[in-house]
Amino acid sequence: MIRPENLYVLSKEQAEQEPPASDINQISTTVEETVFLDESYTCSLVTSSGQRIMGKIVAREHSEIAPSSEVYVRWSTQHCCIYDTWNDQDITKAS
Predict the structure, then answer these.
(1) Number of Cβ atoms within 10 Å of the Cβ of 14
(2) Distance of CA 21 to the CA centre of its chain
(3) Which of 4, 61, 62, 85 could bridge to 56 as Cys pair (CB 3.0-4.6 Å)?
(4) Closest CA to 67 of 37, 41, 40, 85
C-alpha cells in the first residue's frame, strides 16, 4: 500500500531525463482518468497487468497528463508496504 500523496507521476520525457535514485521504485502506467480538485489532480492509473493505482499530483506541475497518456509512477521504498495476504489485525498504523 502506498498513500496517493507519496506517489510521483512523471511524463515519459521527465522520467527519461531524471533517472530514479537507488531507493526509488518506478513503474510504467497509462492514465485512465484525471479529476481536477482545487490545486491538484487525482489520477486513475493502470499498469500493464491491469492493476489500478490512484495518485494525487499538483496541477501546475503536470498539465500535460491526460487520459490514455503513458506516465511513470515513482515512490520511495520507505513509503510502501506490500501484502499478498493479511488479517485485519496485521495492518496497523505502526506498519
Answers:
(1) 16
(2) 16
(3) 4
(4) 41
Per the structure block, which three cell numbers stand in for 17?
A: 531525463
pLDDT of residue 90: 64
Whether residue 94 is predicted with pLDDT greater than 90 in this model: the reply is: no
Q: How far is CA 11 from CA 30, 47, 55, 63, 84, in A?
A: 10, 15, 14, 10, 29
Coil, helix or strand at residue 65: coil
Q: Is the pLDDT of residue 1 over 60?
A: yes
| DSSP single-letter state for residue 93 | T
76 phi and psi, to 5 degrees?
-75, 145
Residue for cell digits 515513482?
74
Secondary structure string (H, E, C) spanning 30-51: EEEEEEEECCEEEEEEEECCCC
